[in-house]
Specification:
heterotrimer; A alpha+beta; B alpha+beta; C alpha+beta; A: alpha+beta; four-stranded antiparallel beta sheet; 11 helices; 14 strands; C: alpha+beta; Ubiquitin-like (UB roll); DNA polymerase, domain 1; 2 domains; five-stranded mixed beta sheet
């Protein structure tokens, strides 16, 4: 790993100011995505702005019809949080299935979505729940947040502070993980709200995406049966040594049905 | 003392240091003034190395030296030798290309070492390596067997036309032709034995230390056989006499074959230490392990089995292509030949066998022995073929095996492929395994699975292997350039404690306990009075090391022979002390007793007399009590058994889960059941890994796609079930312990059982074949293809 | 160079590290606590697992500087004097280790699990160990050992 300068600011404001001063710098949250990337030499930032001394961003709370999860809440904290379990149990379950125990002990919600790995689990939740990403300077709608492969709507020095998840009536995430890496080959989150159903897929494309065909199929009948016969086109899906686009397309259907079954149960 | 002797399931003596974090692995060693090496490796599968420009890297902070192949050549450093020669069908020798420690004109696989950067710290060495300018001219490359043998394929070596290293055969072709001529039924199969990357958890590491004052060299290395490395370094690579060379393999974190070989890095750190006058250390990063540790398997095979009308086997023909990679690793040629084709009879009476093996060079990492080495390839072929024969003849898969087993009364049994099995009882292990899995209850379980939308299948494998490798005279006649005995020294101390120096090497097997149990059994002293020393050529007289499940059968036997000598000498001393005739003294329960009397001397008293010989038969006996033995076995040993696997396939996703495994193995007499079971568990996990999860993937152009644990799937705890392990003992007839060996049985026996189970599960859908690893997508695709075919 | 101050195995340490120094490098190379191992470079194998603030983490995927002010426990800190931790004892009794290389990481991971639940099922243990690879044991005896340790630690009979 190439060397870099290291900063550990005490507040979010200081962190943003610090990154503003380093054009090739990066924020470091739990490091579970970033450090492996640096170790493999796939990125060489000049500075790392550690967020570990910032206590204000790890809070998890309910605010009316929303669940607000601080950017620095670890996957393990989200998984075990009584508030999350009570409000959006599907999100707690999703967090409990990310990586492995040690990744969950360090990895954070903010780090995960800012990194925007196309096979990460959280992006499915951000889209399916119609979440809003609160940054140091604005709110970004979930649907606008993921832009492409490892690409988000965040400005270079913009810091994710929290994610606001609308609380659905029901939701569940079904994941088909890579046997080797545990990342999602296909992960599908379905969420039913009073106003409709949202379905989001991760792992299958260059970024997480919603599937309107499944959403409308489920709108009138929130049951696995409603998805029978709904075609998922393989076009545009990822194809790699672990899964072809055709197989991913098929798995989207299976995981969607399983997610609906779990949510409806 | 019998509760610590042979047969006692005692926990290991060596555990404590590992549990406390006090094990000492090579990378834990830090010598004063140690420098750090980083190896620059070819990113291309095949390229001309046009130029290496050192200046920029040389100027990087902390850099001490940068070496290339030219520097090695200037010093007349030898290339890495191959320890086994194969003779072609036509009597000519195999093609044996050079194998320099650093490639100088051409790189021949991704990961081929090209330069060595030595710096003050590990990070500096790596940083500087990134600054080294190497000009490559990429050349066409070939990675897959089918491509390598195609007309016009890129050539790995000029001298190996068509990329053929050797074209070899075994068996009686005419007899085989005759058998097929009278067959009622011929069953054919085509198989791939998937390429694997061993992945011992400890990455390789080597520290070279040249002591100029004494003109003496020490190598600390992650090796399964330090004496073999010393021998090869002395005779071929470093060219330093053995008495000036010490090789230490301290605690080693798993081997599975991958740490048998003499690797370039071992030579490089030793040579660099001599050049620089300081110790030089190299530790592999895991990504380097993927592209530099010898890989395993990689066969493509066609085979035909001839049967009579009762389903009895008449003959077997086999044509195999074996991928050797770009260079010949230390024992590579032996693996697809004498460790493979000799096992093609399985546990069956198979009167005629003819096997042809073409070994092929490709632009990939060298392939050599990996847990099982040749024998998993043989058992996979035979057991898949037998299952296919059962399906095609309509004979039950258990029955067809029973019908063709070599019956217990037919031993010793001479196979059609050179081996003579000394003993076995294949019915017994089959019966045990079927009982353990409740074979009769399978249909009920299958129905229960079906109720949950899952397809359940059961698969059987009745395998045999040859281990305890092996008689020197035999392996020598087959092309081995080394001998395969084992050595041991038993040193009895004046106060009665015992140190055993063994040439076997433990890298997880637990020799410090098992071998100590042999001493407890023979000398009647407590386990705590015994220390086993291994892994240091300065401490141990000689040794050939640990591989091919040979430690207990060959190394253990050497210890027993040395113990016999200790007892024999002890009797002489005791006879003198007891004023009895030597013939009247027997050694029993730790005491030398005058038969029929109560006159006795304890073992410790005799030991004391040997070292304080005030009252001693000096005229006939030397003082001291220390004996050595070299044991060269008369034959291989032949563990065998039955592995039964149940899987559940999710037809929606293609995911296969192993839900039950029951095995019954005959590994000969068991010294420590706890450790033997542990060995079987580990082998099963690796075998299930091969069948369902593990696959080394090369692009057609030789880029390694499965280059990390992110893409090469090692089985995890959540992928595996508990294992039901049983055994049935037929003691080996030709070694003093009656032992056979256990390290590889899991990896050899279970892969065909898993695949047979998957095919059993999928049979109702019309799926007839699946390749290893049976990944979810492959299973799903096979189901879709079968559906289309039926539609 | 930066200064990092932390507790390791209940002892205060101060060390000078580069920003890129990983926690595992600090432990192994500077504090010479070589019981924590490095088995991969992609955060998969778990041979480097230690406890930071009581939670198991991969010390190869954490900067040493990020451990400033924390309490770290490595495998060397598990036993109390000569007395093995119940998890260590269980691994010994059930032959839960072979080559020993993955063992420290698995022990630390198991300690974290047992701090969360004193009655894990076999399924819980297998799932929890997703972050630890072992190539020797096939996990059978590791799982058995963790379950047995759980029994012992809650005073039940195994």
């Amino acid at each position: 790993m190439k060397n870099f300068a290291f900063h550990r600011p005490k507040s979010a404001a200081e962190a943003v100011a610090a990154l503003k001063r380093c054009p090739d710098g990066k924020f470091l949250a739990g490091g579970q995505s970033l450090l492996p990337v640096l170790k493999l030499g796939m990125a060489e930032p000049s500075d790392l702005i550690s967020l570990s001394a910032i206590r204000e961003l790890a809070d998890i709370r309910r605010d009316g019809d929303r669940l607000i999860v601080g950017a620095l809440a670890t996957h393990d904290e989200v998984h075990r949080s009584p508030v999350v379990k009570q409000t959006i149990p599907g999100l707690a379950a999703l967090a409990g299935g990310i990586g492995d125990a040690q990744v969950r002990n360090r990895g954070t919600l903010g780090g995960s979505i800012a990194h925007a790995d196309p096979a990460a689990d959280y992006p499915a939740a951000v889209l399916a729940l119609g979440a809003t990403v609160q940054t140091d300077r604005r709110r970004i709608g979930g649907d606008d947040f993921f832009r492409g492969l490892f690409e988000t709507a965040l400005e270079r020095d913009e810091l994710v502070q929290a994610v606001h998840f609308p609380i659905p009536e029901r939701c569940a995430y079904a994941k088909f993980g890579s046997p080797a890496s545990k990342y999602a080959l296909v992960g599908v989150m379905v969420a039913r709200f009073a106003g409709g159903v949202r379905v989001a897929v991760t792992g299958a494309g260059p970024k997480a995406f919603r599937l309107p065909t499944l959403e409308s199929a489920l709108a009138g009948n929130f049951s696995p049966a409603a998805l029978t016969g709904v075609a998922i086109p393989a076009q545009g899906l990822r194809s790699d040594m672990e899964a072809s686009a055709d197989y991913r397309a098929h798995l989207i259907g299976v995981m969607a049905r399983r997610a609906v079954a779990a949510a409806a149960a | 003392m019998s509760n610590q002797g042979v047969g006692a399931a005692i926990p290991r003596k060596e555990d404590r240091r590992f549990l406390l974090g006090k094990g000492q692995y090579t990378d834990d060693i830090r010598l004063p003034d140690q420098l750090y090496a980083h190896i620059v490796r070819s990113p291309y599968a095949h390229a001309r190395i046009a130029a290496v420009r050192k200046s920029k890297a040389q100027a990087a902070p902390g850099v001490v030296a940068i070496f290339t192949g030219a520097d090695l050549a200037a010093d007349q450093v030898g290339g890495l030798p191959c320890g086994w020669g194969i003779t072609n069908k036509d009597g000519s020798p195999m093609v044996e290309p050079p194998h320099p420690a650093l490639a100088s004109d051409r790189a021949r696989h991704v990961g081929d070492p090209v330069a060595l950067v030595v710096a003050e710290t590990k990070a500096q060495a790596k940083d500087a390596a990134a600054e080294l300018e190497i000009e490559y001219e990429p050349l066409p490359a070939v990675a897959h067997l089918a491509d390598a043998v195609a007309a016009g394929a890129p050539q790995v070596w000029e001298q190996a036309r068509g990329n053929v290293c050797f074209d070899w055969h075994l068996g009686d072709q005419a007899a085989c032709d005759a058998a097929f001529a009278k067959a009622n039924k011929v069953v054919e199969i085509e198989l791939t034995n998937n390429r694997l990357i061993p992945n011992a958890m400890e990455p390789r590491c080597a520290i070279g230390h040249y002591d100029a004052a004494n003109d003496h060299y020490t190598l600390y290395t992650t090796s399964q056989n330090p004496h073999v490395i010393r021998l090869l370094m002395s005779a071929f690579t470093l060219k330093v006499p053995e008495h000036k060379l010490r090789v230490v393999a301290p605690d080693v974190g798993g081997g599975f074959g991958s740490k048998i070989y003499h690797y370039a890095e071992e030579l490089l750190v030793m040579w660099a230490s001599r050049k620089l006058g300081q110790p030089v250390k190299w530790t592999a990063e895991r990504s380097e392990s993927f592209m530099s540790d010898a890989h395993g398997r990689d066969h493509v095979t066609k085979a035909q089995l001839a049967l009579d009308k009762e389903g009895r086997f008449l003959g077997l023909r086999v044509q195999t292509l074996a991928n050797l990679g770009a260079y010949l690793s230390t024992f590579a040629p032996a693996v697809p030949t004498y460790l493979y084709a000799t096992l093609l009879s399985g546990p069956y009476h198979l009167p005629a066998i003819y096997a042809e093996v073409k070994a092929i060079f490709t632009h990939t990492v060298p392939v050599d022995a990996y847990r099982g080495a040749g024998r998993p390839e043989a058992s996979y072929l035979v057991e898949r073929l037998v299952d296919k024969a059962a399906r095609e003849t309509g004979i039950d898969k258990v029955e067809i095996r029973r019908r063709n087993f070599i019956p217990p009364e037919k031993f010793p049994y001479q196979t059609a492929v050179a081996l003579q099995y000394d003993i076995g009882n294949y019915q017994a292990t089959l019966d045990l395994a079927l009982k353990a899995i409740d074979y009769r209850g399978f249909e009920k379980r299958k129905a229960e699975s079906a109720g949950r939308g899952k397809l359940r299948g059961i698969g059987i494998s009745t395998y045999i292997e040859a281990c305890g490798i092996a008689p020197s005279a035999v392996v020598g006649s087959l092309g081995a350039r080394a001998a395969l005995y084992e050595a041991a020294t038993v040193r009895v101390h004046p106060t009665g404690g015992v140190t055993v120096m063994t040439g076997s090497h433990s890298h997880g097997q637990g020799h410090e306990t098992t071998f100590a149990q042999l001493v407890v059994e023979r000398l009647g002293i407590p386990l705590d009075s015994v220390e086993i020393v291994h892994g240091d050529t300065d401490k141990i007289p000689f040794g050939m090391g640990t591989y091919g499940s040979r430690s207990i059968a060959v190394g253990g036997s050497a210890i027993v022979r040395a113990l016999d000598k200790v007892v024999a000498k002890g009797k002489k001393i005791a006879a003198h002390l007891l004023e009895a005739s030597e013939a009247d003294v027997e050694f029993k329960d730790g005491k030398f007793v005058v038969v029929g009397t109560d006159r006795a001397k304890a073992f410790a008293e005799v030991a004391f007399a040997a070292y304080v010989p005030h009252n001693y038969p000096h005229e006939t006996l030397e003082p001291g009590l220390e004996e050595s033995a070299f044991y060269d076995p008369k034959n291989f040993t032949f563990p065998a058994g039955c592995h039964v696997v149940e899987v559940e396939v999710d037809p929606e996703t293609g995911v296969t889960r192993v839900v039950d495994v029951a095995v019954a193995d005959d590994v000969g007499r068991v010294i420590n059941p706890l450790l033997v079971e542990g060995q079987i568990h580990g082998g099963l996990a690796q075998g299930i890994g091969q069948a369902l999860y593990e696959q080394c993937v090369y692009e057609k152009d030789g880029q390694l796609l499965s280059g990390s644990m992110m893409s090469y799937c090692l089985p995890r705890a959540s992928d595996l079930p508990n294992f039901k392990v049983g055994n049935h003992v037929t003691p080996c007839t030709h070694n003093p312990l009656g032992v056979k060996g256990v390290g590889e049985v899991g990896a050899i026996g279970v892969p065909p059982a898993v695949i047979n189970a998957v095919l059993d599960a999928l049979a109702p859908l019309g799926v007839k074949d699946i390749t290893m690893p049976a990944t979810p997508e492959k299973v799903w695709s096979a189901i879709q293809a079968a559906k289309r075919q039926r539609a | 160079m930066f200064k990092v101050t932390l507790q390791v195995n209940h002892k205060a340490h101060t060390a000078e590290v580069e920003p890129r120094t990983l926690l595992v490098e600090l432990l192994r190379d500077q504090l010479r606590l070589t019981g924590t191992h490095v088995g991969c470079d992609t955060s998969q194998c778990g041979a480097c697992v230690v406890l930071v603030g009581g939670k198991s983490v991969k010390s190869c995927t954490m900067l040493a500087l990020e451990a400033d002010g924390t309490e770290v426990v490595t495998v060397e800190g598990l036993a109390q004097g000569d007395k093995l931790h119940p998890v260590q004892t269980a691994f010994h009794e059930h032959h839960g280790l072979q080559c020993g290389f993955c063992t420290p990481g698995i022990l630390m991971s198991a300690v974290d699990l047992l701090a969360r639940t004193n009655r894990p099922t076999e399924h819980d243990v297998r799932e929890w160990l997703d972050g630890n690879l072992c190539r020797c044991t096939g996990y059978h005896n590791i799982v058995k050992a963790v379950l047995s340790a759980a029994d012992k630690m809650r005073g039940g009979k195994s």
